[in-house]
Amino acid sequence: MSTETSDPDDLTFEQRGAVAVLRLNRPAAMNAFTGTMGEAWNRAYQRCDQDDSIRAVVVTGNGKAFCAGADMSGGGDTFDSPDAKIPFSSSPVTPAWQLRKPVIAAMNGHAIGLGFSLGLQCDFRIAANEGKYGLVQVRRGVMSDGCSHWLLPRLVGMERALEILLLGRTMSGAELVEKGLAMKSLPAADVFDAAMALAEEISLHSAPLVTAMAKRLAWDSADMSVDEMDQRETAWLLHTMGMPDAIEGGTAFFEKRPPQWTGSVSRHWPGKPKVKHSEQ
Questions:
Q1: Domain boundary, last residue among 203, 229, 257
Q2: Helices assigned H by DSSP within 141-187
Q3: d(CA 218, CA 227)
Q4: Which of 24, 79, 166, 265 lies at a 20 to 30 A Cα distance from 53?
């Protein structure tokens, strides 16, 4: 089953089976980020988080780019100080790590500035051999965004994070893999299919509730002590033991068939979900 909607044209939403596909849709502008795109992106992420029929998310770009960063059509006014009366955040889209579904960035081409930051927020990244990637803002006289100063040291360590943030160089897909910022780099034409294959494997073989809980625990781990982790992990393990999926997983394995998962992220989540949706 595949359903597609446009919300609005700057971003399209399609559901292919249990996988949601979000496409940045400004190919003539290399999918440069706009406020309208951000609003649609937020709505799409919220839908993905709350809809149990969606088990994984792929974000990609239409055309030859993933996202070329902020829309620079305003020229020198692009980075003027915003109106103090209008809410502003350096992370204009709900960070992908807050969603309870795995989010895969199929970076089919260039991802620069904010476009790269939003890709880094995803759980997995597949880069294109032809693409250029980087946080170039230091060379434009402004700070990098998308919580990149929090995220990069956690992904690659302090020295490499500072190399990326302070030098503002662009990197190839192969360099992203070497630095630990992408799973793999492929020809651009193969990036989306590889992302879909990963998303479909997760949605078929990984129990949705356990997947969501494991993702949340892993992302929260950097700010937890070992004792805090042990307490949360133990409590959440006990939460999943004895549930139908704990029985189904082993039964399906021994019967050599795909599992039929029934656990619900929306109904069986242990406590209130810690998702704060960004405001535009």
A1: 203
A2: 148-156, 158-167, 173-179
A3: 15
A4: 24
